[in-house]
Amino acid sequence: MKALYCQQNSREEEMTFVFQERENLPPPRDNDVKVQVRACALSWIDTKLLSEIKLDKELLPVGREISGVVLEVGRKVTFFQPDDEVVGILPLDSEESGVCEVILVHEHYLVQKPEKVCWVEAAGTVRDGVRAYTALHYLSQVSPGKTVLVMDGASPFGTIAIQLAQHRGAKVISTAYSLEDKQYLERLRPPVARVIDVSNGKIDVAESCLEETGGLGVDIVLDAGVRLYSAEDESTSKPQLLPHKHEIITLLGVGGHWITTEKNLQLDPPDSHSLFLKGATVSFLNDEIWNLSNIQQGKYLSILEDIMEKLSSGVFRPQLDEPIPLYEAKVSMEIVQKNQARKRQVIQF
Asked: Model's pTM, two decimal places?
């Protein structure tokens, strides 16, 4: 039985993905569930975060969002029994690679998969769903009548965030980074209020948002990264399509919420003063927090259940690529790690 791992080379940026032969798994411990994996979604591995919380090692397991069938349960497991269909996200400190035919998982990281949801959709939606719920429900309390700006709405995460915001009754504005993205967003149903095409670099995002909201600004901004400096000072690693932090502060309404994925966000005193005058908040989106503290376990499981319910009822329609066979997993993971995949990549067993 083979499993996929990430091998870090001496230079931090160099990573290779390797299949390792695994011995047969032992019987499940008291609270463990043995799962036959049917699908596993691939996500970018944050080696810097793993290093900061002392979880980095020579071989890192690849693939954490899984769906599958329960084969066997530990003697204290109460949530599941053999033949149950389950879905979940393996914790950060898991030794198990999701890209493996059979794995052991603690029962508190899994929920039941609805019968009408296919394996690939379940695994491919669960992480983006958790991120969207964290941003829009727990960090900003989206509600009917609010205006939400979702940057890069055609990404897998942006798509789910748009659908969740619309389901909660919010008006959604989104940015598109290419003509294909623009056409995709314009086809979404229910339609977004406005698609701002920033691909040519000539459209002012702040101006467009203020125009759309009658000068009031948006209530919630969900970014996909920001530029911290002017174009000539910014490192080439930052795409010029990203908005500048001043643009986001300008388009934010009074009492607004800025949810950022920019972990190194730097706010200068004038930035802070503008946010103070608006009574606005800045929150950092780190969806790993649910697994870093067990005190939130009940809320976390209810989020997973709600994501599956919305997937089953058609509220969520994820951005998935064609299912990938196991033998192409290494190549697909290399693409994901380089941030070159525009649709969610899912391995199907």
From this structure: 0.93
